[in-house]
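Handout, page 2. Input:
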Amino acid sequence: MSTNDDLAESAITCPIDFEADGKQCDYLRLPHSVTRSAYGWLPSPIVCLKNGEGPTVLLMAGVHGDEFEGQVTLAKLAHTLAPEAIRGRVIILPMANFPAAQASQRVSPIDDANLNRVFPGDARGGLTRQIAHYIERRLMPMVDYVFDLHSGGSSLHYLPTTLLTWSDDAGEREAEIAFADAFGSPFACFFAGGHGGTSSVAAAERQGARGVTVEMGGSGLVSPDALACCERGVRRWLAHVGVTAPLPASPDDPKPRLVHAMTPESFVFARHAGVFEPAVELGAEVVAGQLAARLHDVETPWDAPRDVFFEADGVVICRRAFGRAERGDCLFHLGCPPPPA
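Output:
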């Protein structure tokens, strides 16, 4: 949990009174001294809505700046959600890594850092680590839930998927699944952990909040079907935790297919550079040993392409978006059958 020293150390400031009822729209001020502006700051937009007592939710997008579905979802929500429609507090941070989001890049162009790999951050570090520190030490201690909206970004494309953190505790797994059911994405995928404690979900856990994240589309654009799923899912999450009124149940409510990606075989990587020719589409059911792709060295077209094979059974929930691949690039992500309970 945060301390007074943690808060005093941060150079990031915000004029919003998080305890006041109503709707406030302003900016986190990220100090950034450059030749053009010696005493300048970067404006990361933030919205706070509060109406009496109730749960507090932090909604984030733009942790990776080239992931747009979440940013659009939260921009729409910031415009349309009224304090009278909620019970408790909703904090909206649509461009969490503002420099990256402004530049439409996965990582910050200022310090080349990935916000979702540097939590808990450092108040005296580079700008991305300062942002991570502020989010974890200032915002997260106020909240009960952190919903972090992602997509495949420029290099990948995901079928809408809720990402869950695997726990050996059956009750905790059921609680995670309940959030996936509430969101209503076609898939819910268990992962083994939170990138060694450096992710937003791990940060939320350290601060006593529940963190859940999703992957929605990608390919460096706004995918209409993923955007619609994301908008609907966020509204359903707010109702699920009691911030907004319950939504009427419907027999058409989607129930995610539960899969996992907890073994290396769930991912397919390029072992050679070349032009990426996928052999399957998103959503395809595949088996170990099946052809996944061919990599073509078009600079030596007389050489045979390199075949790439799946190493596990599963469904293709993510595929590379770029046409070229280098050795080590991710080509596919499988959702594999869930492990025994």
